Amino acid sequence: MKKVSNILTRKGSSVIAIDGSTTVLDALRLMSDKNIGSVVITEGGEYAGLLTERDYARKVILQGKSSLETQVREIMSTGLPRVLPDNSVETCMHIMSESNLRYLPVFQADNLCGIISISDVVTETILSHEETIEHLKSYIQS
User: Fold this and answer.
1) What is the pTM of this model?
2) Diameter of the chain measured on Cα atoms
3) Which domain range does residue 83 map to?
4) Contact at 8 Å (CB) between 56 and 77?
5) pLDDT tens profile 73-86
6) CATH code of the domain containing 113
7) SS3 state of residue 121
8) Cα 81–18–27 angle (5° rounding)?
9) What is the DSSP-derived secondary structure letter of residue 74?
10) N or C: which end of the chain has fewer CB within 10 A?
């Protein structure tokens, strides 16, 4: 059974983080430059939440707020479920599906050690299935 640690090993565990006082526009520029759909928000150097493209669409655009004046702390997602490196990919898929989430923070003790996306979970599932298929082919041919 594949685990979150497999995802972090494959994609890396580095996270892009910005301070909660950063403007939404600056955060969006960073996300565009890095080709990412979420960014970690910190307050006093500690994890405070995530800013996602969905947060922007629903909490800025639809509410008529200014991307130039709104700080990310005003619209970030907080209270997201946390997963551990030892959690299974299937557990993450269940959490994401049940909670309609696209990103989950990964914590080891109280330290943020990565972010996984629904795309990461799907990719890991596909790789696992391909691995199983290869094992079955190898078994059949021997």
Assistant:
1) 0.88
2) 65
3) 4-141
4) no
5) 999 999 999 999 99
6) 3.10.580.10
7) helix
8) 100
9) G
10) C
